[in-house]
Each structure stands twice: as C-alpha cells, then as structure tokens.
UniProtKB/TrEMBL annotation:
<dbReference type="InterPro" id="IPR001789">
    <property type="entry name" value="Sig_transdc_resp-reg_receiver"/>
</dbReference>
<dbReference type="InterPro" id="IPR039420">
    <property type="entry name" value="WalR-like"/>
</dbReference>
<dbReference type="InterPro" id="IPR000792">
    <property type="entry name" value="Tscrpt_reg_LuxR_C"/>
</dbReference>
<dbReference type="InterPro" id="IPR011006">
    <property type="entry name" value="CheY-like_superfamily"/>
</dbReference>
<protein>
    <submittedName>
        <fullName>DNA-binding response regulator</fullName>
    </submittedName>
</protein>
<feature type="modified residue" description="4-aspartylphosphate">
    <location>
        <position position="54"/>
    </location>
</feature>
<keyword id="KW-0805">Transcription regulation</keyword>
<dbReference type="Pfam" id="PF00072">
    <property type="entry name" value="Response_reg"/>
</dbReference>
<keyword id="KW-0804">Transcription</keyword>
<feature type="domain" description="Response regulatory">
    <location>
        <begin position="3"/>
        <end position="119"/>
    </location>
</feature>
<keyword id="KW-0597">Phosphoprotein</keyword>
<dbReference type="InterPro" id="IPR058245">
    <property type="entry name" value="NreC/VraR/RcsB-like_REC"/>
</dbReference>
<keyword id="KW-0238">DNA-binding</keyword>
<dbReference type="Pfam" id="PF00196">
    <property type="entry name" value="GerE"/>
</dbReference>
<dbReference type="InterPro" id="IPR016032">
    <property type="entry name" value="Sig_transdc_resp-reg_C-effctor"/>
</dbReference>
<feature type="domain" description="HTH luxR-type">
    <location>
        <begin position="151"/>
        <end position="216"/>
    </location>
</feature>
<dbReference type="GO" id="GO:0003677">
    <property type="term" value="F:DNA binding"/>
</dbReference>
Length: 220
C-alpha cells in the first residue's frame, strides 16, 4: 500500500486528489496539508511514501518544503504537481530533492502511475519538460564543468562498470534499455543501479541524472 500526503492550498483541489487516490486499491491518503510548514510537520510525523506537493502556497512554498522534507533523510519522496508548466519551477523542485514533476492538467492515470513510480524509486518528469530541463542544467553548472572529474567523491567510489551505468542513466536509458544495449541481465542492471544510487548518495534516478550532469559525465 502506497501512503500519500496531499499538499495544496485549495480545499477543492485536495478533495479531488483524495477521491482519485482513494479509488485505488493500492493507495491510501494519510492526511492533507494547506501550506509548506504544515507539510513539513505532517511528513515528519506520518512518514508517507509520497508527498504530492503544490508549488505556489501562502507562507512557505512547495520548493522550500520539498528541500526540508528531503533533507531530513527520511524515506519520503516528493512528487511536485503544479498548474504552472514553468521550467524554473521544475528545475528548482528537482534540485530541491523532488523525485518527480507533473502539471495539474495531466491525465488521472498519469498522476497515479507517477505516484507509483516515485514510490518505487523511479523518477517522473512531465512529458515535454525533460529535454528542456536537461538543457537548463548546463546553465546552472559551475564554470569549467566540462570533463568528468575523478576527484569528485561521487565518482571516485564507482567501478568502471558503475561509472558506465551512471552515464547511461544520465542519458535517460531505462533498465531494459541498459540491459539490451550493454548485454546484461536486467537483474544485474538493477543491482548496478542500486549501487550507483548508494555510492553517489542519490535518492533516486532523477537525482542520479543531476549527478551525471554535475560531474561532467553527461553533457547536452
């Protein structure tokens, strides 16, 4: 059962999300929050699998709430859901530690599958935003980030194979694609991916993608 905390400043929006989520046999809504401060408190107390987080809210916004929830080191993952299809929100949210970003005009099935994916450790980014987000990384990277740095502690601990796996994760390959193209069993790929996430301190695949760009393994 995937547990969810709904965070949105609009009561009717929260009600709609609750109705949709609770219609699923594998999901349950633990509680709701109307602002970022309330979300942080309830996430720490309830420890949901997923926080469904709005961006624009009075007081503490969803980006800062996401940063504080993910910084706590708890297992809770954040899926940002906003009305605004704006690259700055997506980039800021993912850098803050969110595992996914969808806009509110997404189909109900997309939202449900997004929650399931985030709960299982995968990353979700709204279609159409992925390429723009990757292109945006180059403008946020420190000057001189052009070649992979073996001195970067996130890369230093990786084996050659794990470094290769991180590179193709950064290029957006799925486990199935990695297995097919590198001629590996999918179970072996999953093991490699798990080790890469652990060694690079990446919460999930989207954070691994950011790592691949920041360390220079992948460039647009």
């Amino acid at each position: 059962m995937t547990t969810v905390l709904i965070v949105d400043d609009q009561p009717l929006q929260r009600f709609g999300f609750r109705m949709l989520l609770e219609s699923q046999d594998d999901m349950t809504v633990l509680d709701e929050a109307a602002n970022g401060t309330e979300a942080i408190r309830k996430a720490a107390h309830l420890r949901p699998d997923v926080v469904l987080m709005d961006v624009r809210m009075p007081g503490l916004d969803g980006i800062e709430a996401t940063r504080r929830i993910t910084a706590s080191g708890d297992r809770t993952r954040v899926l940002i859901l906003t009305t605004f299809d704006v690259d700055e929100y997506a980039y800021a949210g993912l850098r803050a530690g969110a595992s996914g970003f969808l806009v509110k005009d997404a189909e109900p099935e997309d939202l449900l599958s997004g929650i399931r994916a985030v709960a299982s450790g995968d990353a979700v980014v709204a279609p159409g935003l992925t390429r723009r987000l990757l292109d945006a990384y180059v403008h946020h990277l420190p000057a001189g980030t052009t070649e992979p740095s073996a001195a970067d502690p996130r890369l230093a601990a990786l084996t050659d194979r794990e470094r290769e796996i991180l590179t193709v994760i950064g290029k957006g390959w799925t486990n199935t694609e990695i297995a097919e193209r590198l001629h590996l069993a999918e179970s072996t790929v999953k093991t490699h991916v798990s080790r890469v996430l652990a060694k690079t301190a990446s919460r999930d695949r989207v954070q691994a993608v950011i790592c691949a760009y920041e360390t220079g393994l992948v460039r647009p």
